[in-house]
Amino acid sequence: MATVRISELGEFVGQQVTVRGWVVTTRSSGKIAFLVLRDGTGLVQGVLARKEVDDALWERFAGLTQETALAVTGTVRADARAPGGFELTLTDLAVTGPSTDFPITPKEHGTSYLFEHRHLWLRSRRQVAIARVRHEVVQAIRDFFYARDFVLVDTPILTGSIGEEAGNLFSTDYFDLGKAYLGQTGQLYGEAAAAALGRIYCFGPTFRAEKSKTRRHLTEFWMVEPEVAFNDSDDNMRLQEDFVSYVVGRAVERRGAELRELERDTSPLERVQAPFPRISYTDAVAKLNTLGSDITWGRDLGGDDETLLAREYDRPVFVFNYPREVKAFYMKENPDDPRTVLGNDCLAPEGYGEIIGGSQREDDYDRLLARIVAQGLDPQAYGWYLDLRRYGTFVHSGFGLGLERTVAWICGLSHIREAIAFPRQIHRLFP
Ligand code: 4AD
Ligand code: MG
Q1: Are residues 374 and 335 in the same domain?
Q2: Distance of CA 318 to the CA centre of its chain
Q3: Please, which residues have CB within 8 angstroms of residue 229's CB and are 6 or more apart in sequence?
């Protein structure tokens, strides 16, 4: 007899199979008893008729509790009304792992309680759906770059040079060499690799000791960062819109069932198609002022500004050429307006805000050195990075897309922390 996963039941209609999983719910009328079982691939309903089974089996069924691990045997029937679309007429049942007083019950629990029990909460239908959407997004990212001949280059997590800003670094003692920092970005290493391979991307965990407790911030998050030799800022935005459209399209196309489980209205996602509208920072500030924001030229857009601006468009929007004071040291000075840099953010609609930060990189040795010094960074630590401007400097651009912000947006989550299995925030290190 076959032992099968719930997702495979369709191939076994009319046959006897064994399924292993965990109890979601049980109910019994005294004459007929129902069990909903999950195994990570789906749900199936098990049915037991009192008069058709022996006392021992009926008793074992009666003892089942939420999240008991078990193996059931039965005949597969297609039944559109049953959760998952199939029913098993049970002939046997073996408990393999009892579960008493599972802490997460169908009643409402508070958010902090759920996050304290994150290791168990992950089993819920909603969390399983989010995990599967995230998985699809990751696979879509890898497929996109593979198909375009980008080479994956894994960049270090322990670093000596600060990648973004000094204000939100995690540091640790590193033998006799002083401080090491947890990488905020792989970009600087990606730039070196782009000079070797042309088109590269890195994709891994990044760290920011963010003091902010917003629904958009984690202290550990995953970022994918392509870097492309000979792309200018314009090419960079074109790559971003193709990329975001592809990733969102893949999730909608292949994870429809999960998005339905999450009650996500996918019509805004279906509109996510290149080209995306573009607005310069300067025009964005003027527009925001007419929309009621009190932002002044020179200030970074706040989360509320991003939401307000993005609401004006039916798909993600690029804001480009920000003032250099609000952006990182490596962005290339805009030759047409040196107060600004050739960088862009990509703002997602529906209040999700910045999902991408990208730029053309400063490729002039002297200007880059001046920026490093002006930002109070130690030029010694950037000797290797400056070398890229000494030996065959080249026009190049890249960007970073935050995985959890993207997953939160696609899933329609109200907070980024549900977009990763074990979120890290200032007040959360367990489980
Ligand atoms: O705009 P950021 O800081 O850009 C960089 O790190 C560049 N080095 C990327 C590059 O050009 N290669 O971060 C990029 C993205 C943001 O748009 C956001 O989606 C995400 O990373 N991000 C965060 N996500 C969750 N929590 C945080 N604290 C985040 N900080 C940035
Ligand atoms: Mg940014």
Answers
A1: yes
A2: 20
A3: 194, 195, 198, 199, 394, 395, 396
**Whose Cα sits closest to atom 17 in ligand 1?**
356
Asked if 86 and 128 sit in the same domain, the reply is no
Whether residue 234 is contained in a domain is answered as yes
Domain that holds residue 56: 2-97
Answer whether 208 contacts ligand 1 (Cβ < 6 A).
Answer: yes
Query: Residues 106, 112, 113, 116: is their CA dihedral positive or negative?
Result: positive
CA of 354 to the centre of ligand 2 (A): 7
Say if ligand 1 is within 6 A of residue 332 CB.
no
Position 166 scores a pLDDT of: 82
Strand, coil or helix: what is 129?
A: helix
Whether pTM exceeds 0.90: yes
Atom 3 (ligand 1): residue with closest C-alpha?
Answer: 357
Tell me the CA–centroid distance for residue 355 and ligand 1, in Å.
7
Task: Note the pLDDT tens digit of each residue in 363-390.
Answer: 999 999 999 999 999 999 999 999 999 9
- Would the CB of 315 count as within 6 Å of ligand 1? no
431 within a domain of the structure (yes/no): no
CATH of the domain at 396: 3.30.930.10
